[in-house]
Amino acid sequence: MKRMLTSCFGLGFMPIASGTWGSMPPAIIFAGMCLVCSGWGLVAANAVLMIVLAVLGSIVCVKFTPDVVKIAGKKDPGEIVADEFAGQSVTFIGAYASGGKEIAIVAVAGFLLFRLFDIIKPWPIRKLEKLPDGWGVLADDLLAGLFAGILLQTGLFVVKFTGWSG
């Protein structure tokens, strides 16, 4: 059961880019929320849901990663994607999209920004990998999610409030 939870019900066992697969559910859930909610209801409901997902992914990662690491025999096995799930959820806290093409653009932009920060791990993200046990697996993804979320919110601000659309 621990491996099933840390792999986000098997997504971590995908043969290629398991972290990318583990990042997809929060982006899809964000897009779904944007389809069913609007206005401040969307912002509030989405923020609460993304916080809940980030907390759940974090708890699973910290609690079960040490056992899965022992089973897999690697420090950060690719099958563990609960950290990506949590970090991607952080990216979408407070994000919004009002409909149609905008939902897809914001969901894809948030997804790609998180994957970029998670993969390249700029300072100080990489330093967090040195934390012990599940914390080292999780913390870098939470900070990558925070960086991606800040960049996503900045982009949304520029587009929404300046009218700039490229």
Order of helices and strands: HHHHHH
| Rg (C-alpha, Å) | 16 Å
Q: Helix segment count?
A: 6
Cα(first) to Cα(last) distance is 47 Å
Number of strands: 0
Helix content class: over 70%
Shape label: globular
Mean pLDDT metric = 91
> Low-confidence parts, pLDDT < 50 over ≥5 residues?
none
What structural class do the secondary elements suggest? mainly alpha
Largest sheet, described in full? none
Strand content: under 5%
Description:
This protein is mainly alpha-helical and 166 residues long. Helices cover 72% and strands 0% of the residues. It has helices at 2-6, 18-36, 39-72, 82-91, 100-120, 133-162. Helix 2 packs antiparallel against helix 3 (39-72), helix 2 (18-36) runs parallel beside helix 4 (82-91) and helix 4 (82-91) packs across helix 5 (100-120). The chain starts with a helix and ends with a helix. The mean pLDDT is 91.
